[in-house]
Amino acid sequence: MESYTVAVTVAEKKLEKMELPLKKPVGTEVLIKVDSVALCTLEQRVYTGVMKYWPFASGHEFSGVVVEVGPDVTSIKANDKVAARALTQCGNCHYCRSGMENLCVSGFQASTHEGLNGPGGLAEYVIFQEQAVYKMSDDVDLGHAALVEPLACCIHSIGQAKIELANDVVVMGAGIMGIFHTQLAKLKGARVIVTELNPDRLEIAKKVGADVLIDSGKTDPVEKIKELTDGRGADVVICTVPAAAAAEEAIAMAGKKARVVLYTSFHPKKPSPTIPLDLNQVHYSEVEITGSVNPKVVDFYTASRLLSHKILDPSAVITEEVPFSNLEYAFERSLDPASYRIMVKF
Ligand SMILES: [Zn+2]
Ligand SMILES: [Zn+2]
Predict the structure, then answer these.
(1) Are residues 130 and 34 in the same domain?
(2) 268: pLDDT confidence band, cut at 50, 70 and 90?
(3) Could you tell me if 57 and 102 are in contact, meaning their C-beta atoms sit under 8 angstroms apart?
(4) CA 99 to centroid of ligand 2, rounded, Å
(5) What is the number of the ligand closest to the CA of 105?
(6) Residues 203, 274 within the same domain
(7) Long-range contacts of residues 279-286, Cβ cutoff 8 Å, at least 24 apart
(8) pLDDT > 70: what percent of the chain?
């Protein structure tokens, strides 16, 4: 029987390549030859041992080409370019049945390869159910298609922000998530103000369309936002910086009726980070403070369409392409805070 290679994180900074038998897709299964895999925070945390989920088959941001489909598959065929939603929900809990599957009680889990925990995109081949596979356009760049998942996370967050035309939207932080939020807020017709400490990242924010850049190392962002909005404060603030002090600033720079989206989780997780909150500011301004966690099916579908039809160009967040044969280097490179996404290519 033919076999294929899967990359498995087996211990701290230790990767192994395993051989597994290649199966034929049955029923509604789709067999995909993987082309591109982006290394996200989950992959990095398991690799560095922050999350000791070993042995773990990494890779939840990936794309590929369909090799073969099971007899019951109707929407996808061989040679289609696809992305897949590897982290799925239970479908049965209160939240799943109420159209809030991003809040599923069993969390987002996956075991793509037999006997291995993890989403498993870092493999020559993967099999997914048709339902989890999203067809991309024939002319899409497969490196771009691998970014459907992180873009979908930001699309969910942009929905939480309820942006209206000409809103003043502040994006705090210009990492990959800040860059995607900037691009999406521009598509929504906002004036986008980006705050960031790193001048190189501010340059990238400018390149993808940010209207105003604030170097938060040199300028007090709260004062500057007030100045830019005639003292009102922003209509929307999206915080992608995982520090409690940033969340405090986000609320301080929000105007009346503003939406503050805490997109990131905050670290360290224990003890849980806290900030003082002016209850009268909430009362008198009707500010909405919310979070954003995981993409819904609709967010994933929207992301696949934005990238397929080139409505959003993600090339600014791809730092380097690395061949699968050089996987250790790719992981090490992804840990460099100066890099955005490192794309592993098969
Ligand atoms: Zn559920
Ligand atoms: Zn991701």
Answers:
(1) yes
(2) confident
(3) no
(4) 21
(5) 1
(6) yes
(7) 281/251, 284/256, 285/254, 285/255, 285/256, 285/257, 285/258, 286/256, 286/257
(8) 100
Contact between 151 and 314 (Cβ < 8 Å) = yes
Max Cα distance, the chain (Å): 70
> Residue 21 Cα, ligand 1 centroid: separation in angstroms?
31
Q: Could you tell me the distance, in angstroms and rounded to a whole number, from the CA of residue 296 to the centre of ligand 1? A: 12
| Tally: H helices and E strands in the chain | 11, 15
Structural domain includes residue 113: yes
Which pLDDT score is estimated for 337? 87
Ligand sitting nearest the alpha carbon of 97: 1
Q: How far is the CA of 101 from the centre of ligand 1 (A)?
A: 6
For 10, 36, 120, 122, the CA distances from 5, given in Å and listed in that order, are: 15, 15, 11, 9
- Which among 200, 232, 197 has a CA at the least distance from the CA of 217? 197
Using the predicted structure, report yes or no on whether residue 69 has a pLDDT greater than 80: yes
Q: Which residue has the tokens 């909150």?
A: 277
Ligand nearest 39 Cα, by number? 2
Considering every ligand atom shown, identify the ligand nearest to the alpha carbon of residue 300 and give its number. 2
Gap from CA of 127 to ligand 2 centroid (Å) = 19
Can you give the CATH number for the domain in which 177 is found? 3.40.50.720
194 and 226 fall within a common domain: yes
Q: Return the closest-CA partner of residue 88 out of 69, 104, 72.
A: 104
Nearest ligand by distance to the CA of 147: 2
Our count of domains for the chain comes to: 2
Whether the predicted pLDDT of 180 surpasses 80: yes
Ligand nearest to the CA of 87: 2
Which ligand is closest in space to the CA of residue 96?
A: 1
DSSP class of 312: S
Give the range of the structural domain holding residue 192, as residue numbers without chain letter. 159-291
Q: How many Å lie between the centroid of ligand 2 and the Cα of residue 277?
A: 31
* Bridge partners of residue 272, in order along the sequence: none
Centre of ligand 1 from the C-alpha of residue 51, in Å: 23
Identify whether 152 is part of a domain. no
What is the amino acid identity at position 96?
C
